[in-house]
Specification:
350 residues; alpha/beta; Rossmann fold; 5-stranded antiparallel sheet; 11 helices; elongated
Length: 350
């Protein structure tokens, strides 16, 4: 599954190129709790089809009711919505918040753009497909759109005259090793909106690979990482347990801006890996601070699907800028368990 914003924009583009009337809704402000953050988008076609989300569903239902009724008014001589963008606000009163399924005190404001220009949408989706970060500015007076390359992700910006939302290319995940754990992690990454590439030079593992939607390559991991060119929207995870494969990939990944670099393995194996990289490849302790391991959050996982849940949770937390408490880090949690067990044994307990 592709990045949600990209999917919304591509679907909207297809509708417009097919001659359908449509609108683009963007969350521009929120007060209190809100189901979707500022910058979230959804698109709606004249027949009521919806892609994306700005709430838990109730606001989408209201927009369908309002604007597909208007689209259907053509036969009765009614005027279709069009022209300059408009703002709409939901959840101003407690009754409205309840009716639209917003949390207590939650209010959000949307910008509605009617019939976005297909040519501008085409240029935007092409830029995103090429891996570029793009700022899209909507002029409020007439809905005219300007696109500019951006150098870094940015929060949505509003002025008296315009609204600017920054769109990035898909998040990408490179997995080293095509084993069973990789199958579960790749599946979770795909439905979380990542574009997934799996690298394994071992034919016996590639032959059993069965996850549709993930790209499978057979080159050596270091070459694959170089060709992959990880950026700040990329993560690299080594899952083979084979130092000849994992270490090569990690060495290359640590020279990139990847937001997450990690390797599977026990505390002892991960410490041995760090020592190898310092002794044989000249990496410093400071350079290795970006290398995560043991990876995942501690949920007592034992099976491949549970371990994949643990790893995916940590990747998403890092992606979303959430600082995880030390108690859920695998190494720290297992270390605490070990100390407790040793104390119990000393005291004759357990």
């Amino acid at each position: 599954m592709e990045n949600l914003d990209v999917m919304v924009l591509r679907t909207l583009l297809a509708w417009r190129r097919a001659g359908k009337r449509a609108l683009l809704a963007t969350v521009v402000r929120t007060w209190g709790s809100s189901p979707r953050p500022v910058g979230s988008i959804m698109a709606m076609a004249e027949d009521g089809a919806v892609v994306g989300s700005v709430s838990g569903g109730c606001i989408e239902d209201d927009l369908i009711h309002r604007y597909t009724q208007a689209y259907g008014a053509r036969d009765s001589g009614g005027r279709l919505p069009g022209g300059a963008p408009v703002f709409v606000k939901y959840g101003v009163s407690a009754d409205e918040a309840h009716r639209f399924g917003l949390p207590c005190g939650g209010t959000l404001e949307l910008l509605l753009e009617f019939d976005p220009d297909a040519d501008a949408l085409g240029l935007l989706t092409q830029a995103l497909a090429a891996g570029r970060l793009v700022s899209r500015t909507v002029r409020l007076a007439d809905g005219r759109v300007e696109l500019q390359d951006a150098t870094a992700p940015a929060e949505l910006r509003m002025t008296e005259d315009s609204v600017t939302n920054t769109f990035g290319p898909e998040y990408r995940m490179l997995l080293i090793g095509a084993g069973q754990l990789t199958e579960y992690l790749a599946t979770m990454a795909l439905f979380s909106g990542f574009a997934v590439t799996v690298c394994d030079p071992r034919e016996e593992y590639r032959g059993a690979w069965s996850v549709a939607g993930a790209t499978l390559v057979k080159d050596m991991p270091d070459d694959v990482v170089t060709a992959f060119r990880p950026d700040r929207r990329s993560c690299v995870v080594a899952l083979t347990h084979d130092p000849k494969l994992d270490d090569l990939a990690l060495l290359e990944a640590l020279q990139t801006e990847a937001f997450y670099i990690g390797a599977i393995g026990s505390r002892r194996n991960n410490e041995a890996r760090r020592l190898r990289m310092m002794e044989h490849f000249g990496l410093t302790a400071a350079q290795l601070q970006r290398l995560r391991g043991p990876i995942g959050v501690y949920i007592g996982s034992k099976t491949p699907p549970e371990i994949a849940v643990s790893v995916m949770a940590e990747i998403l937390a890092v992606k979303n800028g959430v600082a995880l408490p030390g108690e859920v880090q695998v190494a720290r949690a297992k270390g605490a368990q070990g100390h407790a067990q040793n104390a119990a044994e000393v005291c004759g307990v357990g």
